[in-house]
Amino acid sequence: MNATILLFPGTNRERDMAIALEKATGRKPSITFHRETELPPGTDLVVLPGGFSHGDYLRCGAMAAQSPIMPAVRDFAAKGGHVLGVCNGFQILCEAGLLPGALLRNASLRFLSMDCVLRVERAGTPFTSRWQKGETFRAPMAHGDGNYFADEETLDRLEGEGLVAFRYADGNRNGAARDIAGILSPNLRVCGLMPHPEDLVDPLMGGEDGLPLFTSLAETLVSA
Amino acid sequence: MTIKAKVYVMPKNGVLDPQGKAIAHALGTLGFEGVGEVRTGKVIELELAETDPQAAKAAAEAMAKKLLANTVIESFRVELA
């Protein structure tokens, strides 16, 4: 699997993400700078990691979504490429229109830095094949704007089409609509979520609860 | 010759505005009575190299749609100074 991690000014989770990807695939991911206009040849997974791209100015992810690299990411996704966005990466995917909805300020106005428990709502996708539906796992979260919002019609469609990937299973701390923590595109190849599975992939980090996300991807993209 | 435009960006009705809620609460704590709902937004001032007000307004609206507002959660209004 050839993964590339996008680096925007203010991205700060790219190293954690690289460790998780390397652990699952045995291969170091490449880094693609936001000013590039093409993805590395042979890329089969694009990852938008967490951080505070462009200082969260204007809206979280708004500026990054207009970066020179994003048309290439949009093109890659349109051709069926796999894209993962975590935290700020999820916000960027929403701002770029690659996933529906938006992430608002946490309802409590507090920055949330703690572990949460996620429930897998949709198994059998490139991101969740190593889990069973209904399975729960621990994931660290660290965000000020994780309050998922979409209009009722969009929320009904996401639920009706089974595009909710993860829900908060131990209480809704950020106010997210219908406890949604992560969603999928209709072709199941673009996934965004607020918590950080990449920060729980080794016993040294306190557990391996997040590893199945990356081994699922590695398994799906093994032939590539 | 330039034209100044102001873009007002507000959360849409039905979109939670926790900052507005916090401000309303703080005003109550300070003893200001009779404050109902408080909503917060942004004002973005643009200096545009334009002479035609209509073109300036159209340009500002295009900028708002593309970047300044996220129409999933926000509405906007453009005013020329």
Automatic annotation (TrEMBL), chain A:
Signal peptide: none annotated. It holds the Pfam family GATase_5. Keywords: ATP-binding, Cytoplasm, Glutamine amidotransferase, Hydrolase, Ligase, Nucleotide-binding, Purine biosynthesis. SUPFAM superfamilies: Class I glutamine amidotransferase-like. The active site is at C87 (nucleophile), H196, E198. The keyword Transferase does not apply. It comes from the Bacteria. Its main location: cytoplasm. CDD domains: GATase1_FGAR_AT. SMART domains: GATase_5 (SM01211). It catalyses: N(2)-formyl-N(1)-(5-phospho-beta-D-ribosyl)glycinamide + L-glutamine + ATP + H2O = 2-formamido-N(1)-(5-O-phospho-beta-D-ribosyl)acetamidine + L-glutamate + ADP + phosphate + H(+); L-glutamine + H2O = L-glutamate + NH4(+). Part of the FGAM synthase complex composed of 1 PurL, 1 PurQ and 2 PurS subunits. This is Phosphoribosylformylglycinamidine synthase subunit PurQ.
